[in-house]
Amino acid sequence: MLFKVENMSCQHCVNAVTRALQALDPAAQVRVDLARGEVEASGAFSADAAIAALAEEDYPAQRLDA
Fold first, then answer.
1. Would you kindly state where each structural domain of the chain is located, as residue ranges?
2. Given CB 3.0 to 4.6 Å as the disulfide criterion, which of 2, 8, 43, 54 pairs with 61?
């Protein structure tokens, strides 16, 4: 799944986004592109669950590849 994620600007943001998604699935694969403001993630969770988890951390997201 590919997401456009707002409010990411530094390594702390990368870590927070990664932790939020890996809390849904510890084996999740997460790749963050700060320059593009995009996150690619795969794991045992739905896009809606991922968006909700990111929003809880103040990183509003929308799916790009739906």
1. 2-63
2. 54
